[in-house]
Structure formats: C-alpha cells, structure tokens
Amino acid sequence: MVSIKLDKTLLLKATGKKLSDDALCAELEQMKVEVESIDDCVLSVDVTGDRPDLLGVNGVARALAGRLGVSKGIPALPLAKKPALQVIVEKDARAIRPFVVGAVVEGVRFSDDSIAEIFQLQDKLDLTVGRKRKRVSIGLYDLDKLTPPFHFKALPPSTSFTPLKSDKKMSLDEILSEHPTGVENAKLLAGRKNYPCLVDAAGEILSLIPIINNVASAVTEKTTRIFIDHTGTEEYACNSSLNILCQEFADAGAKVSSVEIVYPDKTVLTPDSTPHKLRVAVVEVNKALGVSFTGKQVADLLTRQRINATAQGDWVDAQIPAYRADFLHPVDLIEEVALAYGYNNFEPLKPTAYTVGSVSQATMRENFVRDFLVGAGFLEVNTYITTNEARIRASRSQAAFAEILNPVSEEYAALRSELLPNLLNVLSKNTHVPYPQNLFEAGEVIVPNDKLPERMETRLRACAIACHTSASLTEVASVLNELAKRVNGKLFLKKISSPQFIPGRSAEVNFGGKTVGIIGEIHPEILSTLGISMPAAAFEIDLP
Amino acid sequence: MNSEERLLKELVNGECEASALAEALKLPLDTVMSLLSRFESEGFVSVKRESCSRFEATAEGAQYAEVGSPEYRLAMAVSDKTTLEDATKKARLSGAGQGIALQWAIRNKWVTPRKDGAVTVFEKAGKPVDSVAEALRKIIAGKTVSEKESQLLASRKLAVAREEKTVTAVITPAGKTFIGSHSQDSSQLTPQMLKDGSWSKAKFREYDLSTITAPLNVARKHPYKEFLNRIRVELASMGFKEVHGPLVELEFWNMDALFMPQDHPAREVHDVFKLKGGKGTVHDKKLVYGVKKAHEVGLAGSRGWRYEWDPEVAMQLVLRSQTTAVSARQLASGLEAPSRLFCIGRVFRPDEIDWKHFIEFNQCEGIVMDDGLSFRELLGYLKTFAINVFGVKEVKFIPHYYPFTEPSVDLAIKLPDRGWVEAGGAGMFRPEMLAALGVDKPVLAWGLGIDRFALSGINTEDIRDLFSTNVEFLRGK
Predict the structure, then answer these.
(1) By residue range, what is the domain housing residue A507?
(2) Diameter over CA atoms, chain B
(3) Are A380 and B225 in contact (CB < 8 Å)?
(4) Looking at the predicted complex, does its ipTM rise above 0.85?
C-alpha cells in the first residue's frame, strides 16, 4: 500500500459530482483506494501497489468518474504529433541507464496545491514503479530555462552544478557524498567512473541521473512549459510511468507533445500511448466469477474501468490505456469486470467441494504432550522463536543456531534451536513470584542441518522445567517416564556430562532406541548468573 | 495431632512470636519458620516480619543481675566510719570492682566520704536501691526497660543492643476453619470413622463459607495456543486438512513460486528477514524452470514480468514471511482435486516493535483446489469463516491487491463494539503461478487475521502479551 494525500476540492471538481464524505469513501474503498482520514480539504489514502495510476488526484478522479458512470472508456490524451524536441542518448550513458523516454507539457497552470500534487506523484512513482529510482527515475524541468536538444551522456566526477536543496555549486562526487539526496541514492551509481547527466545545447546540466536536478531549471509555480524525462532499466516501466504523468497533466487541461529519443542505433518517439490489446473469452469470465454475463455486459463493465471493450461473439476485445501496466493475463481483465460489477453485488456461493478435514498428526502429538504436562502440574508458556545469542549462552547451550542477517534489534537477532534457554529466561524474570514455578513449552525450533535443501530443519519440541526448593532430576525423570508409558514406549536414560547440568545429574533421553533429548539438574552457576535462587531440573525432547 | 495442626492451634490463643512458638511446640525454629511461610502462602496465617533492636546483658551485666551491682553491694557494706578496705572486703569486691563501686556509690549519694585523721572513712547516706541490677534482671527476663536505663547500661557495657528479627504470626479466619475441619471435636470425617462406624454419631462442624478458600496456583494451558487450537478444530470440522511447512524458507517458495517479481518491494530487507550465510537449493529442476519462465516470459497466456530471473536470488534463505509458502509447496507436491488445506503457523516480518506490532505472529490460511471453483464461491467461503470463526453475520468485501491472486479481495466484518474490522485477505491464485507449480485447476486461497481476535480472548490490547513471560499473567492472576 502506498500512502498519499489527495486534495478533496481538486478530486471532486475533476469528477464533476457532488458526493458526501461517506459516499466518497465508500466508492474509493471499492476501487483499491482506502481512505484513512478525511476532512474538509484533504483525504489521506492508501493505494494498492498495482495501481500507480491512482497516485495522482486526476488519476483517482478519472477512475471514480468511470465508476460513477460520468465518463467511460479510455480517456483522451491529445498528443501533438510533431516532437517538441530531441534527446540524444550517447553510448556511455546508455550503458548505465539503457532506456530514456520523455514528453513536453505546455499550458500548465499551477496553483500551490496542484504543484504539490505533481511532486507527490513524481515522488511516489520513483518509489513504486521506479523501485526507488533503480528501475525508473523521473525528472521534471522548466523548459523555458533550457535550450534543446538535450544530450544524455556520462560526465567526469569533477563536473559541477548547483543541485536542488543546495545554494552552492557541487561536483558530481560532492553531490554523491555530501548532498542528502545524493547520499541516499549514491549506491545506484556505485562503481561508475563517469556519471550519467542530461545536458542542454548550451552546455547547461539538467540533472545528474538518477540523483538530482539542477536548481537552475527547477519547476516552480511560474513554470508553464515542462520537459519530463524518465530513464531506467526497463523500457516498458519507463513508458507506462511517463504515460501516468502525461495523462495526469492532460486531464488537468495541459497540452502534451512527444519527444524524439535518438539512440546510436535507432530513433524512438515517446511517449508510446498506444493502448494494450488483450482479449478474454466470455466463458472464462463467467467461469472465474461464477456468473452468466453476456459479451456485451462484460464489455460495458470494462468501459466503466476506463477500458475500451467490444464484444465479438464469444470474445471481448479490450484496449487498455497505456498508463496501466498491471495487465499480464486475461485474468486481470476478469478482475476489472468484477470490480466494475461491485464485489458486494455478487451473491456468495455456498462451498461445494467435499473433503474430509483433520487436524495434523503433529498438532495432535503436541496437544497430547501439552495435556499431559499440564496434568503433571506444569504451566504452559509461549515464547518467541527469535531470540539472542546472550540468552542462548546464558544457558551454556552448545547447540548450533541460525542468525538473522538484517535483525531489527540485537534482542531478536538469533533463532532458537532449543526451548530450554527461553524457559530459563522466563524463570529469571519471575524470581519475585511465588514458587513452585514448574513451566513448559511445546513449540517449533530451528536446527541447522546442511543435508536439507533449506539447510535449516524446523522441529517440534517440548521442554519442561521444575523450579522450587526440592526440584530434582528424580522429579522430572518421573514425569518423563510417565509420559513414555502413555505412548507405550520404553524410556532409557544414559548418563552424559554437560556444562548445563550438575555433574553426575544429567542424562541423554533415549526413547524407542533413538536419542530424543536431554534431562538434568540445572547447573548452579547458570541459576546464579540468571539470579534464580531456587534449584531447577528440566528435560527437553523432540516430538518427532 | 501433627505439628502443622499443633502450630495452628497454638496460634488460636493469639498473636505469637516464632521463637516462642518453637519453644511452646518443642520444634526447631527453622521448622516453625518454614511452616509459617507455607501457611502464609496458603492464607491460613498472616505473618508480620519486623526487625528491632533488643538489649542483651553482657557477662558482667549478668553477674550484676545475680549478685547486685558493686555500688549497691559497697553501700550495703558501709556502716558508720567504715574504711574502704573493710567495706570492699565485706562486699567481696574485686580490685577493679572497687573503683567502679566507689565512684557510683558516691555519685548516687549512697555513701559520704569523710576524713578521719589520716584515713578516709565512709558513712552511709541515703537509702540505696539497686536499679541497675533491677534493669538488668528485666532485660534478661525479656521485658522492656526505659530509654534512660538502657542508655546507662549501654554506657557501662552491662548490656548491648542486638539487631533482632522477629516474626510474629496471627491466625486468619481461613486458618481457623482449617483447624476446625481438622480437629477431632469438629469431626473431620476419617477413614477410621468409616471403618468403625463412629461417623454415625459424629457431629460435623459447619464451615464458614466466606473463609474456606485459599489462593491456589493452578497449571494451565496457554490461552493463545488454546485459541489457535479452537480455530484448527473449526477449520477441520469444515473439511479442511491441516498441513505444515518449514519456518526457514527459500525465497523461491516464499516469493518466486508465488509469482512475486524479484524486484518486488515486499522482497526487500525491510520486509523479510534473511539468514546469515545461507543459500539453499531446489532439487526439482523442472519446477525451477517453470517458475523462471513464468517470471520472464509468462505461462498460461501471460506476458510475464519480463526481466531476467536470477536463480541465485531465489536460493537465499529467509524466515517465512507468509504461510502462502506452505500452500505453494503443497500445490507443487501434486495435490489431487478436490483438496482443501489449512495451515496455522508463525511468520516473521521486520517491523517496529510496540504494543501493536511484533516481528513474529501467527497466520492462518488455506486453499481450495477443485474443478469449477469461482470467485462467488470464494466469497461464500469468506462468509462462512465470518460466521463460524468470528461469529458475525455482516460482512463486506473490499478489493485488494496480492501479487499471486487475481481477483483479490479483503474480508471486513462488522463487530458490535468496534464496527468494520478487516479480518482477512483472499483471492484466486494467478494462472501463471499455478502453471509453474503444475496445477491445472482453479485454486481459491484465503488468509485470516486471527491475532487481533486472540487479544480480546485474553483481555489485553498488547500484542506482545500473546508471548508474555510474566508467570503471574500466565497463571491468570
């Protein structure tokens, strides 16, 4: 979800309808725009990730107008045929950012609000479609301050200009190491000898791409002619993003002209606003949605989603506006039909499939052990799987465990491979609470195991600890023995020495000929380090 | 009568100090102390622990208490014109005692020295009262003495203050009832009475119902795990079969097999935990090829995401960030239609840690695979869940986006106290994803947001309480 703010007056004006706040929110909710808050002037909304065209106020208004039946089908994008200018892409820059698209917008009339909307849209497109400028990055320039044609070429790091949000000339290297926007995005140009820049015919630098623009050609409220560029690694994404911006301007009444991109080996006219063609079989629509629409009904519903559609026998041919890049498969058209029909207008169908349900063997085993241990007087705890090395070490555990590469906190940087350290941790936090404190946990642990494709094994385990004045190996071994009897198994304890337990008072637990865990009286040094002044004895076993 | 009962009975006579109890019951003091703390936790007695300073006679003081203070003895030995030597002899004072005795006897104005020629003689003056010995005797008897007396004794090193801890116990009404229920005359039914038939003549004392209970620490199952079990049973009863999957996953199963492009924002480090030093493998090469093709050029009539799919990225180990990974593994394992599966399991996502968010939580989700499944049937499932899992009738369907489903929908339910609340997400798996996993039938997928409903079940608003380490809280106190 992407959070944006929408100007309510601009939105309703563009829709051409009067709506109460409640009605407006209800409509938006059904078109993947969730309203978080609304007041007299501003809506704070969350837009789903598949609809970058709804990140501008005109985009939302356009979709809303379709929903309300005010206007249908593909919106007009009057594009002046003759290119307004040329961008010459040089080989060295192309090696860094292979694709360039551009457009010129004229007759722009900005107010404070509308310029903020445009910058918000640019910013959010950089973030989403642009994948933080890596895939696509966008530049807007005051064309009246520049001399076309423009060259896209790699320049040496010593080249300098005054970037936005700065008042002094900086070299390209300085921008990347000192300017906040440069520092934030420097990794996109890491390892480059020269840096890609847009330069006008007079040698004026427009921008360091994909980092920051020159303040000299910045767009302000006074700007009336804008040059837009998109550079990136994927042509399709660049073009659809450019179409979103161009449509946004066109809807606001501006005139859009194309730009000619001259590569060393070809010349391309952008933006390419040709609608995508996609066809869907009416029978597929009906099967997927569980309805029996006619071809004409399907086509009508699609036009409310600002798609041109015509029924052709068993098929519906659709033309999808170039600003929508979220159509990969006819199933995407089917969702548009469902959206237009209204999710809440479908009558939910009672489930038809018959299958036998069951709780898994693992869950049943876990519940069996939980029932038993509660009956034996142990209180169940439920702890996190994420833990930390200090906690594991405090229990003197020797077991290997996995670690997180990008933890949010050192407190949760490791993964438990045993339950005992967590139970000792619980005891250490409850030394003021009346004893006996007999605790257990049954749950999953993660054990490194290079033989598995995932190299980590998820295992179900149970651990019980008795902690009171007379807690002993005898006590917990008796519990374990009773548990073994209940599953008709023979328990065998084999003495081992472990730093976790009092010497001579610990054993390996063998069940049915297999080693399944450990048992013993917790070593006093562990208890005193953890501030526990009561003896404790524990066992931990696999629940295979 | 055992020592427990004797102790309680002793307390019926009134508040009593532990050492006095030990004496009265002829029990070691530490036995009394441990009985008292046990009775305290059972609510039968209330125990006051105080520390006070208490005077104790020194050896010298003890001697004075017995034979009188030296000054008193000196004074008593003086009659008219007695020399010091005579008086000392008569009072049987030692050399050292003599000096002290004389000094105090004069200060107390019990004797008056007078020059009689070359020698000093003493005459009896007032009527001596041996208050020093008196005070010492009081101390030895355990009685209190005045501040002035204690100061005097201390300055003369006849008594010293000792810090002493006193434990005083008082029986509670519950304790009295307990004795009542145990004492012979109030007739606790015993095996002997049943054997010899004396129960028929016995009179059973009535309980005071307001005081018969004592606090008890009962072991119990974790309410959150019980909540999850109730949902398991509910889903199993609807015909869903429970499945599990590994907590450490390959990105391949967690994302690539779900048709999430490799540059999708949800794959970045702030949305998924990656593991140190880890790359795994997928042995099924055909499967890997299918997923690669789905991403790069599309399968089943799709255009695909059109980028170069990197198998290395897919092999990175991550902590499962969605249980949909389990569904993907199930689908790839060659399920037969019809199949209905569910999974309740832990998932992990980097997030802020506060009362509303934690990096671990449980997801509950499942799939339905069968011929002829439709979006309307998916809505039917969601409505069934609303009724059977959440206990509400009023639902609302909200369009949403998930990379692996189309159409996608969120379930909102109307709660009487909180209004509309999002309760889950669902959709029909995309054809590209299904084709890559070798599935040729439609699959409905759903996930329910259960944690927030678990919270209201255990009366808390803090999501971290589901994993509380507070034993009192877990005991339900």
Answers:
(1) 361-542
(2) 143
(3) yes
(4) yes
